[in-house]
Amino acid sequence: MNYEVIDQDGFKYIEAGEGEPLVLLHGLMGELSNWEHTLNKFRANYKVIVPILPIYELPILTLGVKSLSKYLLRFLKFKKLDQTVLVGNSLGGHVGLVFTVAHQEYVKALVLTGSSGLYENAFGGSFPKRESYDFVKEKVEFTFYSPATATKELVDEVFKTVNDRSRVIRILALAKSAIRHNMSKDLKKITIPVSLIWGRQDKITPPDVAEEFHELLPNSELNWVEECGHAPMMEQPEIFNDYLDKFLNRILLK
Q1: Which terminus has fewer CB within 10 Å in the chain: N or C?
Q2: How far apart are alpha carbons 183 and 52 in whole angstroms?
Q3: Every domain of the chain and the residues it spans
């Protein structure tokens, strides 16, 4: 990924372009590179910002979706951003939901793709065979419709992460926090426009999760991406970007 990571005042992020702000939030096992296609597409017309969520930096005793939401508030204040569009995948979507419930005045619209917050069939409550490269490869491939999307580079990165004991402890703590923090009773409070862009073959947050989000979010639309798993912006980037572009044109031209 040919973008410089900015390290400033305790925040690490990528930023490109000018215009209305789009803040892209990665998932629990996600990397900044997950958003490369989206960044490349939208930097021409928007200010696109991808913060690194401090999954491995926040104090372990306070680590959870709420603490990441508080971090996001500090980051948006640091960048002097309000009325931004939040785009979140997996845990990033969950953080966006928690943040929006608490600070809706900062958010113009929300885009969720494979978001947790209701139910997810996660990587697992443990990593029983994390020393096995083939086991980790199989788990990464499970994330996608096409196993070919799980490149060696991606599998190598996940393998390295899950074999770092301190990182595994944090990943498990965050995964448990996400499961505990069910959003079903709070979603009705989110009245801003929400676009759900969902892989039809998502096995982590299956299609019925998207349908439940659509039912509970009062101002939402649901868009399906065929032949796609948990990360449409990676697996079917052109279709994902097309849905996102149409949504942004609709809500920002109002």
Answers
A1: C
A2: 23
A3: 6-252
